[in-house]
Amino acid sequence: MDWSALPPLTMLRAFEAAARTGGFSAAGRELNVTHAAIAQQVRGLEARLDVTLMRRDGRRLILTDEGRRLAEGLGRGLDIMRLAIEETGRAAAERPVRLTLTPKFSAYWLMPRLGSFRAAHPDIELLVSPTPEIVDMSDGRFDLAIRFGDGTWPEVESELLVASAHAVVATRELLERYPVETPNDLLRMPWVQENETQEWYTWLRAHDVAPGSKHDILHLPGYMALEAIRSGEGVGLTARIFVQEDIASGRLVSLFDDPDAPGTGYWLIRAASASEHPRPTVRAVVDWLRSEASECANDPA
């Protein structure tokens, strides 16, 4: 459609309102502008079309035949637009809220809390996609994402949901077989690593250790990786929140405790554009996640 062939929408809107309400003043009140502004737009539309659309009869404005035809056409067009917008809004409101997050966070943090969400929001359909894949939030596949890091990702809006540093952990039995005194000693041990993640290499490089060509690595989904670490299959790197109780009970030993890095943890991520006018259902999920995270911070056990 060639939009340049149409008069400006401000002119059409002013004329439609004036025709429907019967005057410039009433149209101005409806559109929150002065009656003079409405009159100027209508006169500009008449000049553009080279036709008289409204004429004054005493203190009243009366539509000409041309004005009546145009007003009726605009009314039908606006009704069609209004219906399409309402149907689109209903479809968006009924669409599931799509959340992507890592398998480990899904299994150990989200799943125990989903009963609370369903009780609070039985009318919201939630689609959870556990994957370590880094997704493009701008393509519209997901409304929300939760990922571990420091929050410095481009072209997204992120807020810290659950603060947590990394922890290198292993069972006491494994450490008896592989004594560890320095980070470099970790290269002699079998590793357990969550699928499609690079945290191990990032951590080792930060501690001046070159991973080299290491092969004895067991790659597993996040929730299986943590169980493998607890079973002594290897040393693992994980967010501290998932192993706090294991460390406290002695089930796992924490190695090379790093001071908590400010801003490190699981972040709630949205496309920058989507955060401006979120759907009510998405806003409800965000509010619920914030509430659960706040309770978790106040009662970490």
Write the layout of secondary structure elements.
Layout: H1 9-21, H2 24-31, H3 35-49, E1 54-57, E2 60-63, H4 65-94, E3 97-101, H5 103-110, H6 114-120, E4 126-130, E5 144-149, E6 156-163, E7 166-170, H7 172-177, E8 191-194, H8 199-206, E9 217-220, H9 222-230, E10 235-239, H10 244-249, E11 253-255, E12 265-271, H11 280-298
Parallel strand pairs: 3-4, 3-5, 8-9, 8-10
Antiparallel strand pairs: 1-2, 5-12, 6-12, 7-10, 7-11
Helix pairs in contact: 1-2, 1-3, 1-4, 2-3, 5-9
Sum up the structure in keywords.
301 residues; alpha/beta; five-stranded mixed beta sheet; elongated
Distance between the termini: 61 Å
Unreliable stretches (pLDDT < 50, length at least 5) are: none
Strand composition percent:
15-25%
Outline type: elongated
Largest sheet: 5 strands, mixed
How many β-strands, per DSSP?
Answer: 12
